[in-house]
Amino acid sequence: MFAGIDVASERHVLARLDSAGKAIGRPIAFGEDQDGYTRLAEALGPPPVLVAMEATGHYWKNLFAVLTAAGHDVALLNPFTARRFQEASLERTKTDAIDAEGLARLAFEKRPVPTQLHDEAAESLRELVRHRDRLRQDFDDRVRQLHRLVDLGFPEFTRYVRSLDSMLATALIAEHPTAQAFARANPRRLAKLRYDGCHFVGPELAEQLVAAAKHSVGQHHGPVYALQARHICQDLDLWRRRLTEIDRDIEGLLDAHEVGKLLLSIDGLGPHSVARIIAAVGDPARFRSAGAFAAYVGVVPSLRQSGKHSARIRAPISPMGNARLRRALWMPVLGAVRRNPWLRAFYQRLRAAGKPAKLALIAAMRKLLNAVYSVARNRKPFVTLTDTARAA
C-alpha cells in the first residue's frame, strides 16, 4: 500500500492507494494527538507502507518518529518536488485532501527512497546551531538598538569605544547610559570599573569619556533613554554568556562525533562551520559523489542552453540547494583563501587566469566541499600534498 500525508500544525490528512494505484476510500483527517495517531495506525494497517509527506517546518517530526517506529517506510520530500509533481497533473484545485492524494500518487509512481534521519549527535548539532543563530540574531538586533540610543544620547562614545557589542561598552553604558551620566562621573572611580572580570577601564579612557561627555552634542538624556540602555546592556551580557555556553556544547559534540572531529583537520573550517555541515547533511559520505554533495549545497553552475539560444559565457550558480549552508560557508572560504596554503594557491591560480574574484571564490568553495567529502568518505584526517612530501 502507498500513502500520502498532508502535514499541518494540528490536523493532518491521509490518502491511501493500493498496489494497483487505486484509491482506498476517501482521504482521512486525523489530529496531532493520541486519538489521531491511533486512527492513523488503524487506517494504514500492518507495515510496511510507503508513506510520502513533505518536510514542512517541524510538524512532520512526531509523525515520522511514530511511523518509522511502527515499521513503515517514510519518504520526506522537498515541498518543491511535491509541488512540481502536482503541477504536472494539471490540477487546478488545491485542498488538503487533494495534496494528500497527490503525495500518495507520487509515492506510487516515483517510489521515493525512504528517508534515513541523521544520528542523534547530528540532530543535536542541528538544534544547537539553529538555537545559536536565533540568539545571535537577537544579540545583533539589541546592538543596533543600543547604537540608536548612543547616537541620541552620547554620539561621541564610539570614537573611544569602537564596538558596542563588547563587554567594555556594555559595562560602561550600563553604569552611565547617557552623556550627562558620564559628565557627572568621577574619572578615578570610572577608571576602576571592571568590565570582564579581570580588566579595568583605565584612567586614560575614563578621562577621555568624561571630557567628551561634558561637550557632547547628544540631547536625549531622560530616564526612558537610560532605562532602555541599561536593559539592552543586561540583555547583551546574558546572551553573550548563553552564546559562549552553546559554543562549548557544540565543540563537545564535535569532539565526540567521528566525522566532525575529522573535518576539523581541514584548514579553514572551524567548529562553527563543521557543526553547520554536520547539522545540514549528517554524514557527507552519504552522497554518491563529491559532485552530488556540491549540488546539494548549490555550488554548481546553472547552465541554460536550448536550440539557437546560446548559454552565457559565465553561468550563475544554481538558485537551488541549501542556501543556509551556502551562506554559512561563505565567510570561512573568504578566510581560507587568505590563510589556507593549498586553497590560497588554487584561488590565486584562477585569478591569474583572469577569472573574476567571485567566480574564483565559488570555485574555492567547491574545492573545499570536495575536501570535506573526501575526508568523510575515507574516514581519515585531511592531508595536503605538501604535508605528504614533508613527511616523506
UniProtKB/TrEMBL annotation:
<dbReference type="InterPro" id="IPR047650">
    <property type="entry name" value="Transpos_IS110"/>
</dbReference>
<dbReference type="GO" id="GO:0006313">
    <property type="term" value="P:DNA transposition"/>
</dbReference>
<dbReference type="GO" id="GO:0004803">
    <property type="term" value="F:transposase activity"/>
</dbReference>
<dbReference type="GO" id="GO:0003677">
    <property type="term" value="F:DNA binding"/>
</dbReference>
<feature type="domain" description="Transposase IS110-like N-terminal">
    <location>
        <begin position="3"/>
        <end position="155"/>
    </location>
</feature>
<feature type="domain" description="Transposase IS116/IS110/IS902 C-terminal">
    <location>
        <begin position="261"/>
        <end position="348"/>
    </location>
</feature>
<dbReference type="Pfam" id="PF02371">
    <property type="entry name" value="Transposase_20"/>
</dbReference>
<dbReference type="Pfam" id="PF01548">
    <property type="entry name" value="DEDD_Tnp_IS110"/>
</dbReference>
<dbReference type="InterPro" id="IPR003346">
    <property type="entry name" value="Transposase_20"/>
</dbReference>
<protein>
    <submittedName>
        <fullName>Transposase</fullName>
    </submittedName>
</protein>
<dbReference type="InterPro" id="IPR002525">
    <property type="entry name" value="Transp_IS110-like_N"/>
</dbReference>
